[in-house]
Amino acid sequence: MRSDLCLVMDQGSHSSRAMVFDRFGNCLSQGQVQVKTRLTQPNRAEQQPTDILISLKRAALEAVSKLTREDRAKLRTAALTTQRSSVLCWDADDGKPLTPIISWQDRRGFHYIDDLMPLASMVRQLTGLYPNAHLPASKLRWCLEHMIFNTAKHRIRGGPVASWLIKQLLHEQPDLIDGVSAARTMLFSLKDRDWHPELLDLFQLPDSLLPKVRPSKYNFGTLKLPGLSLPLNYVSGDQAAALFAFGEPSQDNLYINLGSGGFMNRVLTERGLHPQERILHHLIHSDKQPLYSAEATINGAANALDWAFNICRPETRDIDSWAEKCTDPPLFMNMVGGVGSPYWQSLDRSCWINDCDDPEARMVAVMESIVFLICRNIMAMSALPPAKQIIIGGGISQLNSLCQRVADLSGLPVLRYEQHEITSLGAAWQVLPNSVRDFVPEKTFTPQDNSPLALRYQSWLNTFNEYLDSLEG
Q1: Which of 25, 183, 311, 360 has its CA 20 to 30 A from that of 268?
Q2: How far apart are CA 275 and CA 225, in angstroms?
């Protein structure tokens, strides 16, 4: 029986985390370091590259330091997962960052997207993505047009944050990126599984800018930390890795992961666009036998609740208890961070409709808006065979009121597992030999008749569509 251990490093929006797993999915130790995002208007969100790198190293060292000497000797491999749409530029010679990290929340390149909308169908055919300003392509073009680089053009590299972290963390300092992260840029052909010249031309980006693409499972190099040397054998996007938390993902499930933003995935065994309205088609495992998904995005999830807490300032944060007593909350037009699928509206104009002065009712409205956006995207995925159940994870999935409402409106059982860090768990499953994922749900939410909620959803849906039309008009 193998007893190998894996160190997983996960760089997310609000923190860098590191966890050590065994082959049964047990987390033996972990470390976490918070990171800051600088939000400025209009449409900008940045992070400092050195802060991200230092935080990730500190988290990894913290996790390793908590291991016993015996367990530390069993560490055999490492994995890295990151936000897929955060980008920066760096010097190919020494890895020095040339720009801030432009966060996935940043929408400064929206005017480039507006200009190419007549070519949206072609972009979707090549990439599986609906053009939007959250994706890296427009941000990279913005950097090349607006940033001053005191280095030779042939030395400028740019790409997802994972590619810069690979260069900084590994002894070999390669300029590489995994296929899953590359597929999120809007510069990558799903058919060819490489950068596409026509897309590079469309965004006026040079061939030399981007790192070389490798499979998700690949020997990227040797991770160097004080007192530790491990092969980095897996790199992927956070949401893609999360789908493997409990083993090979199933076509029967709808997977929902609710972090700062929310993501919904249905697994596809073949590449190709189904007649779905503005749903992304994405690579979730890059290898000889690739795996795809239909993905919906909800920009305002935990970050929407944080935004509302800062405005409403209730005395506690007990949304579940408020949801029990608040039978008629107002409607919240959730545009925190812009609106993701299937609307793809870059403006951030969130507001309450039929508002009241009760901060608790307003917070329930924000929670329900997340549920309503989930159900709107389930409707947008209706061309796929119906899912049999929903598997939900992420920080705000701990809200029982949210999970029960998703079950009630979707008519599907919602399964929530005790394992919350599903991104890191999924990455470990990919690289540990003979992995076993024999978990049972911590709680199952069975659909119940909830006519008042269904009426509020319909009212919200009509009002939200009218609200978006008024902004676009």
Answers
A1: 25
A2: 47
